[in-house]
Structures are given as structure tokens and as C-alpha cells.
Specification:
This protein is an alpha+beta fold and 274 residues long. It has five helices and 15 strands.
């Protein structure tokens, strides 16, 4: 198993563990929107307990109180408002709970090098690591970063020069894997999560498994050779060269094991003279 495969297995485990934690949290900060389906339970009042769909105008009809506005309120705020309406001439200190049965009003998209790309319903408090877990984690061909593409004006701080261009948040998978909170972005309605494909290089000559391999940023020649199973007994480590395209021209470069490789490089390990 290559180092890349091990790394992504570890990250997948982190993602799945985080998903369990996130699913256990109550989405109290979720803002209700049109088409969301609410599950409302009024204790000791079975006839009032049901599922209610928020209509396009942000309201729905609730028994006794008539039309109530839910869109734009958090679950806890709406819970308090409904409790106030029922206490106004209907029940003394009504006890109730409001939860989301189906998230329909907000969604985001996951594309690129993930196992299950597509639309994801945006639940309250959802973060990047949870969405990546829902997308089945990254493929081994994923690059070392994730791009969160957000509608213009939704990111605090300096804006991009192009007024029509979206804002882009770059996240390091290495830091995300290590548990850095700053990398676990809080997601918003309309976000697109893009996992780019890692650049590939080619390793040929006196290596155990010649072929093409995805690389991460700052991959060294030695690490590239490790991806190919290492150098054989007849390989000349002191004469390794790289074939690289520079300004449209093919060039051969003599390199040391600690030099950094680039996507598109061809690493060649020649045979020893003796």
C-alpha cells in the first residue's frame, strides 16, 4: 500500500468519526426556509403533533392558531414563537419541540475527486468535514486542498478584483486531517465544494513499479520513487534525472533525492554501470 493510500485511509477515518459527532449535534442554529418539512410535537396533544411543510411564502397553517411564519427563524426561535401563540388563550404553559424532518430549502454541491459527488441538503451547523464524509470521502487521486466556492460577497475580508467572480476559500487537507479548526469551514447555502485532481508524474527506469502516480504539493524525488515501490538493486541513485516541459520545451534536469518534483514530470532512474 502506498503512502498516498495510507494517508487517505487515515483522512477517511477522521471524516467518518467527525460525521458521527456532527450527526449527534442538534441543529438549533438552522434557519428554516421554504419547502422545509417540520416535525412538531406538542406534548399531551397528539392531534397537534404532526409534520408540516413550510410553503413558498415562508408560512404554513397550524391548528388553532392559523397561519404562522417560520421561514427566517431558527428552530429554537420558531419553537418559542409557536409556544407563545399556543399559550395565548389555548394552553397553559404548552410544552413542544420543533425539528427538521426534511431539509429542502438549502443545499450545496460537492464535485471533483470524491466518491459520491452531487447535491447535499444543508443542515444546521454543517461543516466541511461533515460534507466530505457525506460525499464518501476523497479519492486517492484528490489533490492536497479543497476549494469552497461561495457566491460573491459571502466571505468576510478582501474581495476578488472581478466583481462577478465567486469568493474562494482554500482549505489544506493536511491541516484538516490534523484537526485544525480554522480549516473546517462552516458551510452556507449555495456553496460548491470542489476537490481538484492531484497532478500526476511518471516514474520509469530502475524502479519496482514504473508508471504514473498522483502527487501532493512539495513532493520530493525520493517520495516519488517511494510511490513507485522504490529503486531496484541496479538503480543509480546518483544519476536520477527529470524530463520536464519548460516554456513548451522538453528539458532534462539532473536532480537530487531532496529536490521537489512537479506535475507532468517524468522521473527516470538509470541503470548502474557496475
Amino acid at each position: 500500500m502506498t503512502n498516498t493510500s495510507v494517508r487517505f485511509l487515515v483522512l477517511s477515518g477522521v471524516l467518518l468519526a467527525s460525521l458521527v459527532v456532527c450527526q449527534a449535534q442538534t441543529a438549533v442554529s438552522y434557519v428554516i426556509g421554504p419547502q422545509d418539512v417540520l416535525s412538531i410535537t406538542v406534548f399531551d396533544q397528539a392531534t397537534l403533533s404532526n409534520k408540516y411543510t413550510v410553503e413558498t411564502d415562508g408560512t404554513f397553517t397550524f391548528p388553532l392558531v392559523g397561519r404562522v411564519k417560520a421561514a427566517g427563524l431558527t428552530l429554537r426561535d420558531f419553537e418559542g414563537e409557536l409556544k407563545r401563540l399556543l399559550a395565548d388563550g389555548y394552553f397553559k404553559d404548552p410544552q413542544l419541540s420543533v425539528a427538521i424532518d426534511e431539509y429542502r430549502s438549502q443545499r450545496l454541491f460537492v464535485v471533483g475527486e470524491v466518491r459520491q459527488p452531487g447535491a447535499v441538503a444543508l443542515a444546521g451547523g454543517m461543516t466541511l468535514i461533515e460534507v466530505l464524509a457525506r460525499a464518501g470521502s476523497m479519492l486517492p487521486t484528490a489533490s492536497g486542498e479543497v476549494l469552497v466556492v461561495r457566491p460573491k460577497g459571502e466571505v468576510n475580508g478582501p474581495q476578488l478584483p472581478d466583481a462577478e467572480a465567486p469568493d474562494i476559500i482554500r482549505v489544506s487537507l493536511k491541516e484538516l486531517e490534523s484537526g485544525a479548526r480554522t480549516q473546517n469551514v462552516q458551510l452556507r447555502d449555495g456553496d460548491t465544494i470542489f476537490v481538484p485532481q492531484a497532478p500526476f508524474l511518471y516514474v520509469f527506469g530502475q524502479v519496482r513499479n514504473p508508471g504514473s502516480y498522483p502527487i501532493q504539493r512539495d513532493t520530493t524525488v525520493l517520495q516519488a520513487l517511494a510511490l513507485a515501490g522504490g529503486v531496484t538493486e541496479t538503480g543509480a541513485m546518483n544519476r536520477i534525472r527529470i524530463v520536464r516541459i519548460v516554456d513548451g520545451q522538453k528539458r532534462e534536469i539532473r536532480v537530487k533525492p531532496t529536490d521537489i518534483v512537479k506535475g507532468g514530470d517524468t522521473v527516470i532512474v538509470p541503470e548502474r554501470f557496475f
